[in-house]
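User: Teach me something about this protein's shape.
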Amino acid sequence: MRLRSHAMRVAALRQLLVVAAALGTPVVAALAACAADDPGGTASDGGSSDASLLGESAPPDGEAGVPAGEVCGDARGLEVGSPWPLRGGCPKRGGVSAKAGPSAASVKWSLPLLAGDGSPAIGADHVVWVGTTEGDLLAISPGGAIVGSLRTGGAVQSSPARTASGLTVVGGLDGKLYGVVRTEPVDAGADGGDAGPAPNRAAWTRALAPIASSPVVGGDGTIYVGTSDGKLVAVAGDGAAVKWSATTNDTAGSSPSIANDGTIYVGSSDKKLYAIAPDGNVK
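Assistant: First, the predicted structure itself:
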C-alpha cells in the first residue's frame, strides 16, 4: 500500500510539473554536462542580449528558515541572482533554477574547448565559468567569447561554484582549491585592437590533494569538496583554513550535496554512501 501511495504522489507531481511547464512557469533548468560526474568584479556581457533570456528573480530571504520540502536547501552561501551557481543548481543538487529556460532548442553559439569533464556555472552577471583539461578556468561571455582565464597547475575536472562573496570556487588535479576573482578586461586602446581575455586572479588557494569532485557551498559559506586521497574536506569560505576532514575512502571524485538540516551526503568508490554532520562527524 505504501508503494502504491508513493507512486500516486509521484504521478500527481509529474502532472503538476507538466501543467506548470505548459503555463510557462520556470521549473527546471539544467546544463548538458550536469549528468556527468567524475560540478569578483562586475563583468561585461560581451555586448550580447542573451542575458535577458535568463530572467530575473528576487534575492532569497536571509532570515527565513529552510522548509522541510524545499528542493534546493539553504542557498544563502551561493551568489544571489545567479541562474546556475553550481553543478545541480543548488546545495541539494536538485537540478532546479528560478530562472526561465530556453523555449526552443536552437544553438546560439558553440566554442571549441577541452571542457568535457566538468559542467559550467553561470554567475549573476551571466558570465559562464568552466574548467578545461588543459588546466584553465575560463570565463565566457553570454555571447560565447572567452573574457577571462586562470591557468592552474593541472587539469580542471571539477565543476565550479559561485559563492555569495562573488568568488568562483573550483578544484584542480594539481591538488589545490581555488577562490577566483574575475578581472576586468583592459581597454583595447586607440587602435581598436582586441585586448584578448583578461587574466583572472586567485584571491586564495588552499593546498589539499588532487580534486575531481565539484564543490558545494553551505548556507554559512563553508565549502565542501572531495579529494582523491579519500577525504571530504570542509574549507572556510575565505579559504583561510580547513575546518575539518572526514574519511570517505573515495578516489573517484564524487560530489557532495547538502540536505535541509545541513547533513552532507557524498558517495564513495568504496561502495558506500556517507552522511556527515556539519561538524565533520560521520552520522
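Now, about its shape. Residues 2-22 form the longest helix (21 residues). The chain is about 5% helix and 25% strand. If you'd like, I can walk through any region in more detail.
User: That's plenty for now, thanks!
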